[in-house]
Design brief:
This protein has 346 residues and is an alpha+beta fold. The protein is 27% helix and 31% strand.
Length: 346
């Protein structure tokens, strides 16, 4: 039996990681946190050259090993231009959309470690002034960051130590409700990292050694498509991305379920792996849904595209409003843990 205490642990760990800014390309602190968290459980956790974390959870059969992939990089922004009036034009990191980030508080990170607050706003954002406010298409060219500093020129901004190429982090606004809903930007995919940490804690607490050697790769470039392209240990025959499960029109999954993906924009997942995931969900009594995602790509597809010879799958707790202000539920987390438990037979 897998107690609900591991669900609570997954949520706590996810919230701790969500508090660490980590847009793609700016993931050092988050990756270090992940490495330290797994190492604290006694697992061998090492950094890859690319900056991810590879963890060995142990197991008996190293010739039929399983790799679980999740990612700690998120969406974000980068300074593309310092305007003459001291405002900042951004370029997105990953699939961050201007209309989703408008009016959000941001942290702008100088290379010397200083951090400045600001807000992403529509250019000429005052409704009482701008008669075209509601008609303006939101884009990275029609929005800008206003720094909460007394800056009136590009020279004023550069005097703060900021320059083109500096990272802009969006406030996640994380909140766990009494009813069990977790709301935050970047549940994709820090919620899954929390789930894998809780699963590792379960193995440690129960003294369980999986029949299959099991590895975890927490990647740092998933949001730009090549996170899982490398660092596959020898002997791995199957890789499963533990990422967000999609919730929306045309799909059956809810935030309280675990989603098992049959196909996404990259094509079908392994029919054999999906069948075993369904069997594991049924065996453990997990509330699950099988869906086809229309606009999605995963770490494990990058793994296959890099030429690794393995079977692949994708699961995740249901998440609504993906790449926006996302929402999931403790039940979805619990059901994901159950599928992992059932798949590994632990």
């Amino acid at each position: 039996m897998l107690e609900r205490s591991y669900t609570d642990l997954a949520l706590r760990q996810a919230m701790a990681l969500l508090a660490i800014d980590s847009p793609t390309g700016f993931t050092e602190k988050a990756a270090q946190w992940v490495q330290d968290a797994f190492a604290a459980l006694g697992y061998d956790a090492r950094r890859t050259v690319k900056g991810g974390v590879l963890i060995d959870l142990g197991g008996k059969n190293a010739d039929d090993a399983l790799l679980l992939e999740a990612h700690t990089d998120t969406l974000g922004g980068m300074i593309a231009e310092i305007k003459g009036n001291g405002r900042l034009r951004l370029t997105n990191l990953g699939g961050m959309r201007a209309e989703n980030g408008e009016t959000e508080n941001v942290r702008v990170c100088a290379r010397d470690g200083r951090i400045y607050e600001g807000t992403l706003q529509l250019i000429n954002a005052s409704v009482h002034v701008n008669g075209a406010y509601g008609d303006t298409k939101r884009s990275w060219d029609s929005t800008e960051v206003l720094l909460d500093e007394d800056v009136k020129s590009a020279e004023d901004v550069r005097a703060l130590g900021l320059e083109v190429g500096d990272i802009v982090c969006f406030d996640p606004r994380t909140r766990l409700t009494p009813s069990g809903y977790l709301k935050s930007r970047f549940l994709d995919d820090k919620l899954s990292v929390g789930i894998l940490l809780a699963f590792a804690q379960y193995l440690k607490d129960t003294g369980t050694v999986p029949e299959r050697r099991t590895y975890v790769h927490v990647t740092v470039y998933e949001e730009v498509g090549h996170g899982g392209a490398a660092s596959v240990p020898a002997g791995v025959t199957e890789a499963i991305s533990v990422d967000m499960g999609c919730v929306g029109e045309g799909l059956t999954c809810t935030e309280r379920q675990v989603s098992l993906c049959a196909k996404d924009s990259g094509g079908p997942y392994s029919y054999e792996v999906l069948g075993k995931l369904i069997a594991a969900a049924k065996r453990e009594g997990a509330d699950y849904a099988v869906d086809v995602y229309p606009h999605y790509g995963s770490d494990v597809e990058a793994t296959l595209s890099a030429g690794h010879d393995l079977r692949h799958g994708l699961i995740g707790a249901g998440v609504y409003a993906s790449h926006g202000y996302e929402r999931s539920h403790a039940d979805g987390v619990h059901n994901t843990l159950l599928v992992l438990k059932g798949y590994l037979g632990v």
